Each structure stands twice: as structure tokens, then as C-alpha cells.
Amino acid sequence: xxxxxxxxTEQLKDYLEFLTWKAKEKKSSSEQIGKxxxxxxxxxxxxxxxxxxxxxxxxLLQVIKEAKQPTQFESPFEPDGQED
Length: 84
Prior knowledge:
The protein is mostly helical. It has helices at residues 6-26, 29-32, 37-47, 54-67.
């Protein structure tokens, strides 16, 4: 959630809490057991600090840099050898 501004993070959290509440409202508590776990897990994950270290980030960026492939663009509209 580092990429989102605090305001948007709070809005997302509020919306997920609303969805959890709405799902509970529609079903009885006996039916709710084991339901809507995804939204509940997302809310819990948002409350935890990130566990990514700066070394992890640098390592990921290095792998991305090493894996980049050169891009070649050959236009199908301009035949080879044609002069302007």
C-alpha cells in the first residue's frame, strides 16, 4: 500500500470494511463462518507494516534490469529498401 496516498488507503480500507459488514448483514452468523475471508485478510494486511526491505527492492530492480530485452520495431507499412 506504499504507492497509495494515505487518504486513498483509508478510503480503500473503509470500503472493504463496508463490504464485510454488508456481507454479514445479508447472511446469518451461522452462514457467515468462513465467508468473506478475502476482504477480512486484505484489511488485516493493510494494517501490517510492509516487510520488504530496501535490499529486496534493489534486488528486484536488478533482476528486472537484467531481464530486459531489446525492443525492435519493424513497420509492416514501410517495405525495406524504399527511399523517401
